[in-house]
Design brief:
The chain has 419 residues and is α/β, with parallel strands linked by helices. It folds into two domains: 2-224, Acetylglutamate kinase-like (Carbamate kinase, 3-Layer(aba) Sandwich); 303-418, VC0802-like, CATH 3.30.2130. Helix content is 38%, strand content 23%. It has helices at 14-25, 42-54, 60-77, 82-100, 107-115, 117-132, 159-170, 203-214, 247-256, 266-271, 325-337, 360-369, 391-398; strands at residues 2-6, 32-36, 138-139, 180-184, 187-189, 195-197, 218-223, 244-246, 276-280, 289-292, 303-317, 344-347, 352-357, 373-387, 402-408, 412-418. The strands form three sheets. An eight-stranded mixed beta sheet has the order 3-4-2-1-7-9-10-8. Strands 12-13-11-14-16-15 form a six-stranded antiparallel beta sheet. A two-stranded antiparallel sheet has the order 5-6. The chain binds aspartic acid and magnesium ion (MG). Aspartic acid (ASP) is lined by residues 7-8, 37-38, 43, 118, 185-186, 200-203.
Length: 419
């Protein structure tokens, strides 16, 4: 049993959907659980619909745009499939029913109800196409199996419940071979039947959840790039493919901001020693990247991760008293309350410095911190993390830039730079 995940870019249009079917024909004998994301930028468009609805703007035009776009792709890839058209139309009617009501006071719950529909639509379209392309498959509503708590927009998986649901509703779908189950990423459901989402870009994590439940032999994330690279090719000239790294290394990289894999994906895979492959859906001959238990190659290639638009904040008690555990815990509490993630921290006797994304939430936090502390900040910074560095690359990297802060361990060097 293999788990495949196709992201929004891979199913962004009719050609993408057809290409996906072509990829599957290379695995004629495998049992496959296939996870798809919403098509292209549908999730962003649905977020717009949610915000328009919340602020009383008209949502008819954007919803109609999404409806026509999906019906058009469906007509192209699965002409004459009246059942699929019916299912798609029913789902859009559901959306219209939700939007017909004024937004309630449960904004996050409503967000999940609406935004989760993108994955329903793409999976209906893809399933219909696969059938016409001769790839028999069972369409599964992922929410039947992915049980979560009610933390809307960032739902937590209830693994034990999922395991029980998988025994009843998922595993029997693989009784005949080769079994093909087509389902959605990103979405789940609470015990009392409310839709949830796992956080933006959460479909990778869904693939890992299904792999964990099925004790899959591997997970493959099919992308428009041929694997995981040691740096973003848009920023660095000579990027190298990371052919083989450990879970641990991949977790570190995604924690520091490498955006190839959703950070939560790796833990369940590591737990069950399920390898993760990142491969190109455009070049099936390319080997791609392998992520598994073996770390022998982790240090072969230095990796560079750049986070732009960072704020370097320095927090000092007004009376220049020492930064100690008591004020630190108060400061951390404020960060947690404002839901601001700290990307890097460092302290001296009287100052506590942190680096965070520059967002409206961070700005509110600065205002709040200013009530009790002297707060200074530097905007427009870059946070650069280098794994497995050598001196030459580091000096090349920082040349001509002002280094505002620096932190080094044996494996990782981090710089806050003012470009
Ligand atoms: N469609 C969702 C998003 O765009 C989930 C995903 O793509 O992984 O965030
Ligand atoms: Mg997406």
């Amino acid at each position: 049993m293999k788990v495949f995940k196709f992201g929004g870019a891979s199913v962004k249009d009719a050609a993408g959907v057809r290409n996906m079917a072509r990829v599957l024909t290379h695995f004629p004998d495998d049992d496959l659980l296939i996870v798809v994301s919403a098509m292209g930028k549908t999730t962003n468009a649905l977020e717009e619909v949610v915000s328009a609805h919340g602020t009383g703007r008209d949502t008819r035009a954007p919803v109609e745009g999404l409806r026509t776009a999906h019906l058009e792709v469906l007509e192209e890839v699965a002409p004459g499939d009246a059942a699929a058209v019916g299912a798609l139309e029913a789902s859009f009617r559901e959306l219209q029913r939700i939007l017909a009501h004024r937004p309630g006071n449960r904004a996050d719950e409503e967000y999940d109800r609406i935004v989760s529909l993108g994955e329903m639509w793409s999976s209906l379209v893809v399933s219909a196409h696969l059938k016409q392309a001769g790839i028999a498959n069972t369409w599964l509503d992922a929410r039947t199996v992915v049980r979560t708590d009610a933390s809307f927009r960032a739902a937590k998986v209830e693994w034990q419940a999922c395991e029980n649901l998988a025994i009843r509703y998922l595993k029997p779908l693989f009784n005949a071979h080769p079994g093909r189950v087509l389902t959605q990423g990103f979405i789940g459901r609470t015990a009392d039947g409310r839709s949830t989402t796992l956080g933006r870009e959460g479909s990778d994590f869904s693939a890992a959840i299904f792999a964990w439940l099925l004790d899959a032999e591997s997970v493959t994330i099919w992308k428009d790039v041929p694997g995981m690279f040691n740096a973003d090719p848009k920023r660095f000239p000579d990027t190298k493919l990371l052919k083989h790294i450990s879970y641990r290394e991949a977790i570190e990289l995604s924690y520091f901001g490498a955006s190839v894999i959703h950070p939560r994906t790796l833990q369940p895979l590591q737990q069950k020693h399920i390898p993760l492959y990142v491969r190109s859906f455009l070049d099936l001959d390319a080997a791609g990247s392998t992520i598994d238990d073996r770390g022998a190659n982790d240090a072969l290639v230095p990796s560079f991760i750049v986070k732009p638009q960072q704020l370097l904040i320095s927090i000092t008690p007004r009376d220049l008293s020492f930064i100690v555990e008591e004020n630190l815990s108060g400061i951390f509490w404020l960060f947690a309350r404002h839901n601001v993630r700290i990307d890097l921290m460092q302290n001296s006797a009287v100052a506590f410095s942190v680096v965070v994304d520059d967002t409206p939430r961070s700005r509110q936090l600065i205002a709040e911190l200013g009530k009790g502390y002297e707060v200074r900040y530097n905007e427009g910074c870059e946070l650069v993390t280098v794994r497995h560095h050598d001196e030459a690359t580091l000096s090349a990297l920082t040349a001509g830039k002002e280094v505002l802060l620096e932190q080094r361990s044996r494996t990782t060097a981090r710089f806050v730079l003012k470009p």
